[in-house]
Amino acid sequence: MAHTVWVICGAGSGVGKTHLAQQLCAVLPNAIYAKQGHGERRADGPANFYRTDAELDTFIADAATAHDHIVIESNERARRGTNGVTIFIDGVPGLTDLRDDREQLREAADIEISAAATINSWKRVLRKSLPDAALGEVICDCLMRQQRHLFGGRPQARVKLWIEEGGMHIFGAGLARLLEQIDRHGTLRGAAEAAHMSYRHAWGLLKN
């Protein structure tokens, strides 16, 4: 059976990882939820609670035979990587006790929920993972509610800046994002994928 693994991670405690994981599990068809953590499972905690990577891997392998979607709340799993979709929830400035590995988790994620995240960036990722466009819209609604809960729904003023020479556009947000990803990944191909653009388009930006 084909299945998709969704991994929820976050910049610190209190950002709503459990809430989002359970919301996704409620809207994804034939889904099951599990959590990886430390210590003993609480009486009011999830039935599928695992402490080690091996236990979680066994659960995923077993669940894949009967479920279309497996939703995992686990920073550890996000760091290890997954063939599914990893969602990172950013911290709230001044409120979140930030993890030391938050930037590693952010870079490992396919989708980021933050004050600056846009629904279009989420849709680009979901189109690759979900053949059902309507289901993708439902997932985006869940992500948007989480974003508004954490960072507020107040209007924000934004400025778009670019550089021109002789009336021609020579530098803007797209190239800046690509250069940042080249610095992180060390290759143009890896940077293009992380910046959600084709290799040909990325090469054209650099060549120009």
Give a nutshell description of this structure.
The protein has 208 residues and is α/β, with parallel strands linked by helices. It contains nine helices and eight strands.
Q: How many helical stretches? A: 9
Shape: globular
* Residue fraction in strands: 15-25%
Mean pLDDT: 89
Rounded radius of gyration (Å)? 19 Å
> How does the major sheet shape up?
6 strands, parallel
Straight-line distance between termini: 46 Å
Structural class: alpha/beta
Number of strands: 8
Helix and strand run:
EHEEHEHEHEHHEEHHH
Low-confidence stretches: none
**Spatial order of the strands forming the largest sheet:** 3-2-4-1-5-6
What is the share of helical residues? Answer: 40-55%
Please provide a written account of the structure.
The chain has 208 residues and is of the alpha/beta class. The chain has helices at residues 17-27, 53-63, 75-80, 102-108, 119-129, 133-151, 173-185, 188-194, 199-207; strands at 4-10, 31-36, 49-50, 69-73, 85-89, 111-113, 163-165, 168-171. The strands form 2 sheets. A 6-stranded parallel sheet has the order 3-2-4-1-5-6, with helices on both faces. The chain has a two-stranded antiparallel sheet with strand order 7-8. Strand 5, helix 4 and strand 6 (111-113) form a beta-alpha-beta unit. Helix 7 crosses helix 8 (188-194) and helix 8 packs across helix 9. It starts with a strand and ends with a helix.
